[in-house]
Amino acid sequence: MSDNIHLKLNKNQYVRNCSTENAYAIRFSKYDNEMSFISKKWSSLIEVDEFKDGEWNNTYYRMKIPYWLFDKLSDEQQESINSIIQENNEDEIRQRESRES
């Protein structure tokens, strides 16, 4: 089992212009403007360009957060992260089904 939580974030969830030298600004919930600041020292975030039929289709972000850091977040932040994980899993299932058909 991995020591990290892996998240796929859309462009609206990573708030680049509010990030600092030491922390990523993340808006975990799509439904409010509350941001969380996640330490760059203990987590990582990479930008991924997605291509479809050889052309740019979308940009998203992959984030890794250690479980011990997740445990220190507020209940609301943990709930938001868990909902993102659920959304990511549902998206993965839909993509797999569309490739099979």
Number of self-contained structural domains: 1
Q: What class would the helix/strand composition place it in?
A: alpha+beta
Major sheet: arrangement of strands: 1-5-4
Mean pLDDT: 89
Percent of residues in beta strands: 25-35%
Strand count? 5
Which overall shape is indicated by the principal axes computed on the Cα atoms? globular
Approximate helicity band: 25-40%
Give a short account of the largest sheet: 3 strands, antiparallel
If you had to describe this structure to a student in words, what would you say it looks like?
There is one protein chain. By secondary structure, the protein is α+β, with helices and mostly antiparallel strands. The protein has one domain (4-100). It contains 2 helices and 5 strands, in the order βββββαα. It has helices spanning 67-72, 75-100; strands spanning 4-9, 23-26, 36-39, 44-52, 55-66. The strands form 2 sheets. The protein has a 3-stranded antiparallel β-sheet. A two-stranded antiparallel ribbon has the order 2-3. A hairpin with a 2-residue loop joins strand 4 (44-52) and strand 5. The longest helix is centred in the C-terminal third of the chain and has 26 residues, at 75-100. It is globular. 12% of the residues are buried.
